[in-house]
């Protein structure tokens, strides 16, 4: 594997990443690359961002030792509590950072796409905070599944742009946002919600989310005196996972495990673009995608709107190929059981996305009860968000599960 310094060269991660975009967007992407490179090293920008992360977002988020879950699993388990960040998920880290960057670039109009609604809420929140105009593209199927988040965005002053194409979920919302950006690129910054898209977005979003892993690594060392044996995170576009993994990449003894949406199982509909995908271009970057033999992008499926995406960030495709991280899929049903288990064992209603990471732990402990209990060390899981947004979906599905 290439050294950390080499990986970001020209926005490529091994063969993945790059820019597969209309010519008209290239100057804006160049401007964004330069603006971020300058802002990142500017003490004034850094100071303002750190202040907002502390006082507005509520960072650092705690690292919580989940005693009862750990007892069940026969291991020590720590949860990185991104569910306690303002607006209830890690996405606010990226939204506040990019909104601040938009101000620095003199762009007063912000657009965003959203799937679960969490990114839309985060962006609407950041725009209200900084006084920016905000338009959020959202598939109408997601608007139905995530109605409370639609109301939140409107209350925060954002304009909702419903997208009726295709499966009416995240993939179509991204395409609509890209079309808007092409038309309005001079006045508008596009805040992409995950570590996907054309360069420099995957690296920019990772840089803004790495605060999760930087904090967690320090907190874990303070609590245990050693690094975790395994670091586990769910993977949709991959931003909470890369943000958590990044601090540990050079720690060769730490296993990195990304958990994708196995949906109905890998023979049925799912969202496992790393476990069951192939190389392809989606939304401006080459990565591992769900596609048919002709290269047509397939519809993804997951019970969790945030994992319902047929692509993934290019850096994860490279981490998979190099073997530095391992990716596995967990079904809707297993994620639901984990959702209920964490609520009852720890008093935490997780979002359905990180329920996949918890489910992977439960599954692997069941598969090898002896091995899991006797394996050295402890585990660190990114609890990327809270479950309030998923209550209706989860209750309906749990009813089906119990019938
Ligand atoms: C959006 C979301 C995800 C998936 O996005 P990533 O970019 O893969 O992190 C995961 N968890 C929560 C709570 C989300 O809202």
What does this protein structure show overall?
There is one protein chain. With 403 residues, the chain is α/β, with parallel strands linked by helices. The protein has 2 domains: 13-53 and 91-205, Rossmann fold (3-Layer(aba) Sandwich); 59-88 and 210-402, 3-Layer(aba) Sandwich (Rossmann fold). It contains 16 helices and 14 strands. The chain has helices at 4-7, 26-40, 43-57, 67-73, 91-104, 118-130, 140-145, 147-155, 170-184, 201-224, 239-245, 314-322, 332-346, 352-367, 369-374, 391-402; strands at residues 12-13, 16-17, 63-65, 76-81, 109-114, 133-139, 159-163, 188-191, 230-234, 255-263, 278-282, 285-289, 325-331, 378-383. The strands form 4 sheets. Strands 3-4-14-9-10-13 form a 6-stranded mixed sheet, with helices on both faces. The longest helix has 24 residues, at 201-224. It is globular. Bound molecules: pyridoxal-5'-phosphate. Pyridoxal-5'-phosphate binds next to helix 11 and helix 14. Pyridoxal-5'-phosphate is lined by residues 89, 91, 116, 118, 194, 234-241, 306-307, 351, 353-354, 384-385.
Layout: helices, strands, pairs:
Layout: H1 4-7, E1 12-13, E2 16-17, H2 26-40, H3 43-57, E3 63-65, H4 67-73, E4 76-81, H5 91-104, E5 109-114, H6 118-130, E6 133-139, H7 140-145, H8 147-155, E7 159-163, H9 170-184, E8 188-191, H10 201-224, E9 230-234, H11 239-245, E10 255-263, E11 278-282, E12 285-289, H12 314-322, E13 325-331, H13 332-346, H14 352-367, H15 369-374, E14 378-383, H16 391-402
Helix pairs in contact: 3-5, 5-6, 5-10, 6-8, 10-11, 13-14, 13-16
The structure holds pyridoxal-5'-phosphate.
């Amino acid at each position: 594997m290439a050294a950390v310094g080499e990986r970001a060269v020209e926005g490529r991660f091994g063969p993945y990443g790059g820019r597969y975009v209309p010519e008209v967007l290239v100057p804006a992407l160049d401007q964004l690359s330069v603006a971020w490179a300058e802002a990142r090293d500017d003490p004034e920008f850094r100071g303002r961002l750190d202040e907002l992360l502390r006082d507005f977002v509520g960072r650092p988020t705690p690292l919580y030792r989940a005693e009862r879950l750990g007892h069940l699993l026969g291991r020590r388990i720590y949860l990185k509590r991104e569910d306690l960040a303002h607006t209830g998920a890690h996405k606010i880290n990226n939204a506040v950072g990019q909104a601040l960057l938009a101000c620095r670039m003199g762009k007063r109009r912000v657009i965003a796409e959203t799937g679960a609604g969490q990114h839309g809420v985060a962006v609407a929140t950041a725009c209200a905070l900084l006084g920016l105009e905000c338009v959020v593209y959202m598939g109408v199927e997601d608007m139905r599944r995530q109605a409370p988040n639609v109301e939140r965005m409107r209350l925060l002053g954002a304009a909702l742009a419903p997208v009726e194409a295709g499966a009416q979920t995240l993939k179509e919302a991204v395409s609509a946002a890209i079309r808007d950006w092409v038309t309005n690129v001079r006045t508008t910054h596009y805040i992409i919600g995950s570590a996907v898209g054309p360069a420099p977005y995957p690296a920019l979003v990772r840089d803004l989310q790495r605060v999760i892993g930087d904090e967690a690594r320090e907190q874990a060392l303070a609590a245990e005196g050693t690094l975790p044996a395994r670091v586990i995170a769910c993977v949709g576009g991959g931003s909470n996972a890369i943000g958590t993994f990044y601090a540990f990449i050079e720690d060769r003894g730490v296993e990195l495990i990304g958990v994708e949406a196995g949906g109905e199982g890998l023979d049925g509909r799912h969202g496992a673009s790393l476990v069951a995908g192939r190389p392809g271009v989606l939304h401006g970057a080459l990565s591992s995608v769900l596609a048919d033999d002709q290269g047509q992008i397939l519809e993804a499926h997951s019970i969790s709107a945030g994992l319902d995406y047929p692509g993934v960030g290019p850096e994860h495709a490279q981490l998979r190929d190099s073997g530095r991280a391992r990716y596995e899929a967990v079904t809707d049903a297993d994620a639901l059981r984990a959702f209920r288990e964490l609520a009852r064992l720890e008093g935490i209603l997780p979002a359905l996305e990180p329920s996949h990471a918890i489910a992977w732990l439960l599954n692997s402990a069941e598969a090898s009860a002896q091995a899991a209990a006797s394996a050295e060390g402890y585990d660190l899981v990114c609890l990327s968000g809270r479950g309030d947004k998923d209550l209706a979906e989860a209750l309906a599905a749990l009813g089906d599960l119990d019938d």
